[in-house]
C-alpha cells in the first residue's frame, strides 16, 4: 500500500505541475521601451572679480568702469552671471550701499564684453556653450559717489539643459 500511495502522489503531482505550467502563456507581442541615461560631469568654474584701480569719489559718468570679471569652465557649457540678489534692482542693474554710511549709494550695471549673452531668470547667460565669459561692472546713471567702501557681490554659475 505504501507503493500505491507513492504512485498516487506522483500522478497527482505531475498533473498539478503540468496543468499549472500549461495555464501560463504569453498573450500578444512583448512591449519594449528604452531610455537614454545621461551622466553629466560636475562643472568646475573659476570666477575672478577684480576692481578697477584708483577709483576716486566724486562724479562718476554713466558707463565708468568699476570692476572686471572672468568666468571660465573646463568643459563647454552655458555660463551665467548676476549681481547678488541683495544688490539687484533689475537683471543687470543694482545698487550698492556704502559700508560707512548706508545713505551713500553707488548705482551699477553689469554686462559681458561681447554681445553674446541673453537675459535669463535674473541671470545673464551665454547664448551657447562656452568655456570663457568676460565682462565688466560700470557706474549706472552718472551720479556723485561719496567717499566710502562699496562691496560688490556677484554670482557665476554653469547652466546645462
Give a quick set of tags describing it:
161 residues, 8-stranded antiparallel β-sheet, mainly beta, 1 helix
Overview of this protein structure:
This protein is mainly beta and about 160 residues long. Helices cover about 15% and strands about 40% of the residues. The chain is built from 1 helix and 10 strands. The strands form 2 sheets. Strands 1, 3, 4, 5, 6, 7, 8 and 10 form an 8-stranded antiparallel sheet that branches. A two-stranded antiparallel ribbon has the order 2-9.
Summarize the structure.
This protein starts with a helix and ends with a strand. The protein is mainly beta and 161 residues long.
Uncertain residue ranges: none
The helix/strand order is HEEEEEEEEEE
Distance between the termini: 77 Å
Mean pLDDT: 83
Q: In what range is the share of β-strand residues?
A: 35-45%
Looking at the structure, what is the overall shape? rod-shaped
How many strands, which pairing sense, and closed or not: the largest β-sheet?
Answer: 8 strands, antiparallel
The chain-level structural class is: mainly beta
> Total number of helical segments?
1
Q: Provide the helix percentage.
A: 10-25%
> What is the tally of beta strands?
10
Computed CA radius of gyration, to the nearest angstrom: 34 Å
Note the quaternary state here.
Answer: single chain
Topology:
Layout: H1 2-23, E1 45-51, E2 58-60, E3 65-83, E4 93-97, E5 105-112, E6 117-119, E7 124-126, E8 130-139, E9 143-145, E10 154-159
Antiparallel strand pairs: 1-3, 2-9, 3-7, 3-8, 3-10, 4-5, 5-8, 6-7
Amino acid at each position: 500500500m505504501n507503493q500505491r500511495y507513492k504512485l498516487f502522489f506522483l500522478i497527482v503531482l505531475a498533473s498539478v505541475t503540468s496543468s499549472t505550467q500549461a495555464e501560463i502563456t504569453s498573450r500578444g507581442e512583448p512591449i519594449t521601451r528604452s531610455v537614454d541615461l545621461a551622466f553629466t560631469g560636475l562643472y568646475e568654474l573659476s570666477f575672478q572679480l577684480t576692481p578697477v584701480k584708483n577709483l576716486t569719489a566724486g562724479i562718476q559718468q554713466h558707463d565708468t568702469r568699476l570692476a572686471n570679471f572672468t568666468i571660465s569652465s573646463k568643459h563647454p557649457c552655458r555660463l551665467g552671471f548676476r549681481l547678488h540678489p541683495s544688490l539687484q534692482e533689475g537683471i543687470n542693474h543694482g545698487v550698492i550701499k556704502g559700508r560707512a554710511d548706508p545713505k551713500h549709494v553707488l548705482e551699477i550695471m553689469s554686462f559681458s564684453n561681447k554681445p553674446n549673452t541673453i537675459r535669463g531668470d535674473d541671470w545673464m547667460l551665454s547664448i551657447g556653450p562656452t568655456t570663457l565669459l568676460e565682462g565688466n561692472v560700470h557706474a549706472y546713471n552718472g551720479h556723485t559717489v561719496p567717499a566710502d567702501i562699496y562691496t560688490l557681490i556677484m554670482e557665476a554659475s554653469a547652466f546645462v539643459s
